[in-house]
Every structure is written in structure tokens, then in C-alpha cells.
Design a protein that fits this description.
alpha+beta; Alpha-D-Glucose-1,6-Bisphosphate, Chain A, domain 4; 8-stranded antiparallel β-sheet; 8 strands; globular
């Protein structure tokens, strides 16, 4: 099984690196970054969350580790349809702004890969754009 890698668009956020890091470290806030019309069964705590993507699987996210203000390492939870990691990168741009992006790596079989790459790419780009809007 080959690794599937997806990188979101990089976005400039009108907030400090520390502010964005603290916001994203509380997984309750992830609901604000997701497309409301495409998710259901939302559950969250500070360190994990799970949601069902429309017509697809439940996606459980668990905070694995953090590098304060720079990076949040997330891994798939127990009921994930495949094992994956998601890294949120936050880079200080100065002037109270920062840049954010997401890097996904998953072990997805070829059949499933055809079905999930586009929706996941769209999801991560949507989340990045929403992060920008939440802090506008």
C-alpha cells in the first residue's frame, strides 16, 4: 500500500502564530473549520474530535503531539477507515500575521484512494480557508 500525501493550500491568517496555535490546540474549535452541510455526528474534546463526512466514513482525529506555536501533529483515531497523520503547520510572518497549511499522509489502498483524494483535498483546503475567515 502506497502512502497518499495531500498538502492543503497555504493561507495567510490575520492573527499571531501563538493565537492560531492555541485556537487549533482545542479540538472543539475544529467544528468552525468544517463544512457544516457536509458533516454530522460531531463529537469533540480538547484533545480529539470525530465527525462523519456526508456519504462517507467517520473521521476520528486525535492530538498526537505539538511543537508550541509551530506545529500540531494529529493522528487517526481507533475507528478511522485507514491509518493517517495530519500535520498543521503554522509559520510566523511578522506584523501579527501567520501562514498555515495542512500536510496529510495516509495508508490508503488503491481502490479507496480513487474515491477519497479529491474530497480530502477539498476538505483540507476548505479548513485552511475557514481558518483564515475565522481570524479575519
Amino acid at each position: 500500500m502506497a502512502k497518499t500525501i495531500i498538502d492543503s493550500n497555504k493561507v495567510t491568517v490575520n492573527a499571531s502564530q501563538e493565537e492560531v496555535f492555541n485556537y487549533l490546540c482545542d479540538f472543539n474549535n475544529f467544528k468552525n473549520l468544517l463544512p457544516e452541510d457536509k458533516i454530522s455526528d460531531w463529537k469533540a474534546s480538547t484533545d480529539d474530535c470525530s465527525f462523519k463526512i456526508q456519504n462517507a466514513a467517520v473521521i476520528p482525529l486525535v492530538k498526537d503531539s505539538t511543537e508550541p506555536n509551530n506545529r500540531i501533529n494529529i493522528k487517526s483515531g481507533d475507528k478511522a477507515p485507514f491509518p493517517f497523520t495530519l500535520v498543521v503547520n503554522i509559520k510566523d510572518l511578522g506584523n501579527g500575521n501567520c501562514e498555515g497549511d495542512m500536510h496529510f499522509e495516509g495508508d490508503i489502498n488503491a481502490f479507496l484512494k480513487m474515491m477519497v483524494v479529491n474530497p480530502l483535498t477539498n476538505l483540507f483546503n476548505f479548513m485552511a480557508k475557514r481558518l483564515q475567515e475565522v481570524h479575519a
